[in-house]
Amino acid sequence: MNGVKHVLVFRFSALGDVAMVAPVLRGVLNEYPDLTMTVVSKPLHAAFFKDLERINFHPVNTDDYKGLLGLRKLSRELSQNIEFDAIADLHNVLRTKLLRLFLPTRKFPTAVIGKGRTAKRKLTRKKNKELKPLKLMVQRYADVFAAIGLPITLNNSLIKKVHPLNDRLLSVLGQKKSNWIGIAPFAKHKTKRMPFAKAENVIEVLSKLPNLKIMLFGGGKQEQSKLQNIADDYPNVYNIAGKLKLADELDLMSQLDVMVSMDSANMHMASLMGIPVVSVWGGTHPYLGFLGYGQSMANTVQTELWCRPCSVFGETECFRGDYACLHQINEEDILIKVSKFLT
Questions:
Q1: pTM value?
Q2: pLDDT tens, residue by residue, 145-180
Q3: By the 8 A CB rule, do 184 and 174 touch?
Q4: Which CATH class, in words, describes the domain spanning 6-147?
Q5: In this structure, how many other beta carbons lie within 10 angstroms of the beta carbon of residue 114?
Q6: To the nearest 10°, the Cα dihedral for 254, 40, 57, 168?
Q7: Where do you find CATH 3.40.50.2000 in the chain?
Q8: Which CATH architecture has domain 167-339?
């Protein structure tokens, strides 16, 4: 282990990106029982690491550490309060680059994530695409630990651990005595969102099945209103979106039999809780490396078009203008894949 005893881990960014970190850290800790880690991230992300022993979570409100002076202040706080002897930068953006600059990194091993941008550009360009699977993001995280002398082999399998529900959820849902399905039909970017009418069709069909409850997750305020309307219109459908703390949302996900999600944070959150996900893909593609940890390509739903993928993260507009990759999604494909997980 090259004498490494305490690793300082950086990963800010969005929910899904940070959720993917947790199973990798679990693997590293299992392999090295004398190792401790401190994860430096946004306060909201603490819920992803609460089940991991030997993980200290250091919450950072980035608004409190703006600019060079703010990051220098944060680096001093980390140096003074944490006795780390290695750094794993799983983000490698300007903020973390400056933190590494201000920290005394010459004294101990430091490694940063390789993002594979060239290969991703070849996979998303309009012409002469190189359509082949790239390295999984979780493997890129694992490579960082290998570079500081902590190699592991990821098993990339789902590990389910059912969490108890709080009294508020129990009063609404009761104890689990039937099939529970999660559905998260939204994503941040339009190129990753299935037309809502298709999502409603899936919910309508599933809501008519016996011995089943459906929980709706995700979305901003306007989208949460749409989900509430769906919950009001169909039996056995419950709108969870915007009503729970992240930790409680993860507890609920742990009790699902299957999650239906776009390429979004909900896919990675369900994966973290060991839940199989039927994932629906539009302008992005599992080949880019962002399939949920432990998830199977057999459970993906996508339209094979020459123009896919057109984006790594989904932030670009559809250059065709018709979003065919999403409008051609077959709801029946989703229902067939979901049915495999129902008893």
A1: 0.95
A2: 999 999 999 999 999 989 999 999 999 999 999 999
A3: no
A4: alpha beta
A5: 12
A6: -40
A7: 6-147, 167-339
A8: 3-Layer(aba) Sandwich (3.40)
